Amino acid sequence: MILACNKYVLRKQVDHHSPAEWTANNDSIALATKQVISSSHNLRTQSHYQRNESKNRILWKNQETNLALSERVLDIKLWHKTLEETLKTIEEEISALLETKTALESALMNKVPLLEATKMCLMLKDRRTNVDVVEDDQYHQMKKEIKLLENISQKLQQKSKSVWEHLCRLKHTRDHLKADIVDKLSAHNIETYQLDLHTKSAGITLKPFPVEVPVSTVTPEQWHGFSQSNKTSAENEMESARYLCLDALALIRDTENQTSSQREATAFAIRKRIHELKQTRDMLVVQQENLEREIARGRNEVQELEKSLQDTAGPMKVVQTRLENRKWRPQMELCGDTPQTSLHQEFMHLRDVQSALQQKLQEASLLNMARMTLSSTTRNEPKATEPRWYRTKL
Length: 394
Fold this sequence. Notes:
Blueprint: H1 2-10, H2 19-125, H3 137-196, H4 220-311, H5 313-326, H6 338-379, H7 388-393
């Protein structure tokens, strides 16, 4: 009993409260519980709202992203198609420009034989001798043709050089287009793959720096402006190429017309000169025949003069002998009588006749030599036939 009392005495003293405190405590607990329940209810309501809102926002944002990606893919497709069409057109223009360049080179090569043939014609004409080396109409036409062909060759070379330079620029523009098309195709594949991604796709992971923007990133305006610049540059180059092709073809036509017209003028001058040479040759042939007949007559006349001169030798000897013998008459018989006067007159007459015959013989000999020289000249005249180089030129 004593031990029990001791144990009771050592126990801690318990605080006692009044019923009002107990009631207030219960009310306080009830109020706290109500507040906790209300807060929990609000939290659950807000969480549910936030979950729905987050889900809807995620869905809408994903839809917006997908829509933006779809529009981006569509833009890339449109630009890819546009650039492909431009590339096809520029390839056609390059082919046309190559054909034009080939035509220019062919036209230039066709002028080389004509130029060489005309120069050969002039060289052959310079082989003429003496007075036949004349600067006639065909000579001037050939000089004009050479000058025209050299001028045409220079123009064709310059135009071919311009076509080549423009062809290089066109190929450079084509390379830019191809590079842009390759980039567009690569971007299209990437954007299409991004558009096909979803939450259950394989290979999706969290990335360390997902929002990091590359340094080389450009704005949509810059992207659009770059492709537009490539397209515009290609269109400008193609339009210049078209005008250049038309200009080159017009130059080829004009040069062909000029060459044909000048060749016809040269050929006409050559034919005219050949006709003149033939007429001159025929005239010289007639003159040659007349000269030969005249030379024969001259030779006969010289022979007749020589014979007449020889015929005067006998009478001259007789007269001189008579005069010499009459000098030996003696004394008073040495008289200047009528026979002496007659012999003296006969001597003077014979001397005048011989002098006149010798003069005529000398004149006939000189004239005969002149005829022979002229005959030799006419025989050496070139034949007025159509030369081989003329047939080759035509």
